[in-house]
Amino acid sequence: MSAAQAADAGTGQRVSIVTPAAPGSRKGNRATAVRIAALLRQLGCRPHITTHWDGAPTDVLIAVHAHKSADAVFACAAQQPAARIVVLLAGTDLHPTPDAAPPQLGERALAAAARADALVALHPLVAATLPEELRHKTRTIVQSATAEPAPRASRFTAVLLAHLRPVKQPLLAVQALRAVPADVPLELVLAGGRLADAGDEAYAAQVEAAVAAEPRARFVGELPRRDAKRLLAAAHVCLVPSNAEGGANVVSEAIAAGVPVLCSDVAGNVGLLGADWPGTFPAGDAGALGALLTRCVREPAFLDDLCRRTQVLQPMVAPAREREAWRRLLAELG
Fold first, then answer.
1. Which fold has domain 3-143+318-333?
2. pLDDT by residue (tens digit) across 197-237?
3. b/e for 272-309, b at 16 or more Cβ within 10 A?
4. Dist. CA 283–CA 245, nearest whole Å
5. Which of 70, 174, 239, 283 can bridge 112 by disulfide, Cβ–Cβ 3.0-4.6 Å?
């Protein structure tokens, strides 16, 4: 379906999108809300984004992050009972602590999910981890992405796009270089912000110190979204070493750019890339990641295979596919 056809099929529905991330934030929840709003406009809907329930007349509420947007779910249900409620399950809903395994919704997230008319999961393995009474109303909608073309770096480059948070494991990526022989020519580039959340400041300092001590690593700080996507497009591989993921948008961005992903074998990554993805390593294993990086540089056939597999996945992250998934969901809700 073209954008014009999608607009012709639009319903004119008023859609309130609540996200905990403020305007201007580069956090993933904000990017998710902005992207969904753009897709819904193409469908003829009238979306608006807010950080809290503002009471505006609405036909559909989309709450991005069950736990943090729970108050909006309850307020909308009480004030506008005819509105349909969709809750999008974020990574920290499913993994409230970095070592939360198997995934488990916290009390507030569970209450919001129970009240919702539909749940949106970002990868297909989520539904099976939810309480049985929630599974029937769960729909998988993979996050779409577009690429910003850039010439490939002349030196083998691995990029990690993530804020300096323990769950994202940027420190492990730097430590993985110790397992890469000194004669293997590569560069690790980390891009992301330092967050003021409790516990993150000390971890961020550790990451920066490790980068300063590692000649093959470079930290470029937080970049505007377009610059970050260009950095990714110029890389040979994208690293996603997280302890837990709900279905990271950076995986979609890497696929759209044709850049293979080397990632931890957590459900949020495997759910998107497939159980047979050759570029996975056990979560927390810096040595295994180092071995994968070495193999990518020294074995062109292995890297070529990852590139081919990445290209096969590109239709999965096409904006038209995500837009159609939202159209079907809204049609189901009536």
1. Rossmann fold (3.40.50)
2. 656 889 999 999 999 999 999 999 999 999 999 999 999 99
3. bbeeebebbbebebbebbbebbbbbbeeeebbeebeeb
4. 11
5. 70
- What tens digit of pLDDT does each residue of 232-249 get? 999 999 999 999 999 999
* H-assigned helices in 43-136: 70-79, 91-94, 107-115, 132-135
32, 88 Cβ separation under 8 angstroms: yes
Question: By the 8 A CB rule, do 284 and 173 touch?
Answer: no
Domain ranges of the chain: 3-143+318-333, 157-316
Domain covering 157-316 assigned CATH 3.40.50.2000 in the classification: yes
Report the 10 Å Cβ neighbour count for 244. Answer: 24
Number of H helices and number of E strands within the chain? 14, 12
The structure's pTM equals: 0.94
Q: Which amino acid is it at 279?
A: G
